Amino acid sequence: PFEVLVIGGGPAGAAAAIYAARKGIRTGVAAERFGGQVLDTMAIENFISVSHTEGPKLAAALEQHVKDYDVDIMNLQLAEALVPAPVPGGLIEVKLANGATLKSRTVILSTGARWRSMNVPGEAEYRNKGVAYCPHCDGPLFKGKRVAVIGGGNSGVEAAIDLAGLVAHVTLIEFDSQLRADAVLQRKLHSLPNVTVITSGQTTEVHGDGAKVTGLSYKDRVGGELRQVDLEGIFVQIGLVPNTEWLKGTVALSPRGEIEVDARGQTSLPGVFAAGDVTTVPYKQIVIAMGEGSKAALSAFDHLIRTVPA
Ligand code: FAD
């Protein structure tokens, strides 16, 4: 069995595997797709100390760094169930879709999250070519340009406020007849001169010139008319979904489905830790996921040296 088994091979999982392996303990990583969300990212300009890199390049570097150590990498493996240790100090099991069962004294869950997409024509085609999901990451690329934010919940309204300070103009489009964000955020939003708020608007299509986004169409859900907005960027803010469907009923999850962790990355189950976008830790970013992954591995090591194996 493993001493530390990491599930998920994004920035959090890679950091956890390296920190665990550096303690000289038996470490494994099982991931559906090693690299995680980073594989879907183009320019990365906030990975501190690296002015500019690209997602696939960073993903390859993550894998190479893990391979510097004696880590058992199981790529293209989907975890389907977590079985807690039957007795304190016993082995935790992770069942894979291929029928295999992995056993370990500690487990670090780092299965990340996925952005909910609008599923309209043009969205996938212009992803990273004007269609963006992360204002902290891609906001500065649209300096002085016109953008839309899709979604009027807290994340959409926060994104609109954030972007309004960088870009020329923000159009916020909410599907419902009213915004759902906290009142204090809505007040701030309405005080900004370069923001237009559209409610009852259903985005129907992303337009582009073949190379980049040029606008979007939305349907006015009250009158039924189709309207077009010319712009250079679209930030989709309709939800970040944690990859925890397979954990329901085992570890404690927040109402949004994120794994609840304490300051050490400990979950509700002894010996099970979690890190990165899959947890309740706020701000979903690469540097944060790496820090949390490292922390979870140190916590797992601390747990191992204090626990007598059953
Ligand atoms: P993830 O990267 O989501 O990795 C999760 C891992 O778990 C993957 O290996 C996945 O295959 C695996 N997995 C999932 N479910 C299972 C399962 N059941 N069994 C086994 N394995 C599983 N952040 C920045 O800091 N800067 C940026 O510029 C930036 N740009 C971004 C651009 C885009 C388009 C996107 C989508 C995100 C961007 N982010 C950026 C956010 C950043 O990518 C994430 O915060 C970060 O990747 C989170 O790391 P993670 O390891 O927690 O999860």
From TrEMBL:
<dbReference type="GO" id="GO:0102039">
    <property type="term" value="F:NADH-dependent peroxiredoxin activity"/>
</dbReference>
<dbReference type="GO" id="GO:0000302">
    <property type="term" value="P:response to reactive oxygen species"/>
</dbReference>
<dbReference type="GO" id="GO:0050660">
    <property type="term" value="F:flavin adenine dinucleotide binding"/>
</dbReference>
<keyword id="KW-0560">Oxidoreductase</keyword>
<comment type="subunit">
    <text>Homodimer.</text>
</comment>
<keyword id="KW-0520">NAD</keyword>
<feature type="binding site">
    <location>
        <begin position="3"/>
        <end position="18"/>
    </location>
    <ligand>
        <name>FAD</name>
    </ligand>
</feature>
<feature type="disulfide bond" description="Redox-active">
    <location>
        <begin position="134"/>
        <end position="137"/>
    </location>
</feature>
<protein>
    <recommendedName>
        <fullName>Thioredoxin reductase</fullName>
    </recommendedName>
</protein>
<keyword id="KW-0285">Flavoprotein</keyword>
<feature type="binding site">
    <location>
        <begin position="146"/>
        <end position="160"/>
    </location>
    <ligand>
        <name>NAD(+)</name>
    </ligand>
</feature>
<keyword id="KW-1015">Disulfide bond</keyword>
<comment type="similarity">
    <text>Belongs to the class-II pyridine nucleotide-disulfide oxidoreductase family.</text>
</comment>
<dbReference type="GO" id="GO:0051287">
    <property type="term" value="F:NAD binding"/>
</dbReference>
<dbReference type="GO" id="GO:0032991">
    <property type="term" value="C:protein-containing complex"/>
</dbReference>
<dbReference type="GO" id="GO:0005829">
    <property type="term" value="C:cytosol"/>
</dbReference>
<feature type="binding site">
    <location>
        <begin position="267"/>
        <end position="277"/>
    </location>
    <ligand>
        <name>FAD</name>
    </ligand>
</feature>
<dbReference type="GO" id="GO:0016668">
    <property type="term" value="F:oxidoreductase activity, acting on a sulfur group of donors, NAD(P) as acceptor"/>
</dbReference>
<feature type="domain" description="FAD/NAD(P)-binding">
    <location>
        <begin position="3"/>
        <end position="293"/>
    </location>
</feature>
<keyword id="KW-0274">FAD</keyword>
<keyword id="KW-0521">NADP</keyword>
<keyword id="KW-0676">Redox-active center</keyword>
